[in-house]
Amino acid sequence: TGTVRYVEVSTDAGMHWDEASLTGENVPGESIEWEHPWTPLEAAAYGLLVRVTDSAGHAHLSGPLTIVVGD
pTM (2 decimals)? Predict the structure, then answer.
């Protein structure tokens, strides 16, 4: 297992992807910390997908994680 090359986040079921910022140590075989600022356009349920690409170019998809924004 290599290191993480980048992490991408989608808030629209994979139609668009934004690169997240890696914030922690990038150690092979260990979890990685990342952040992605996001402001929802409206109160709704959003399906969050995360795609991680490793140093060998292999993409790994996780999700969807449902985030409900609203009152």
Answer: 0.83
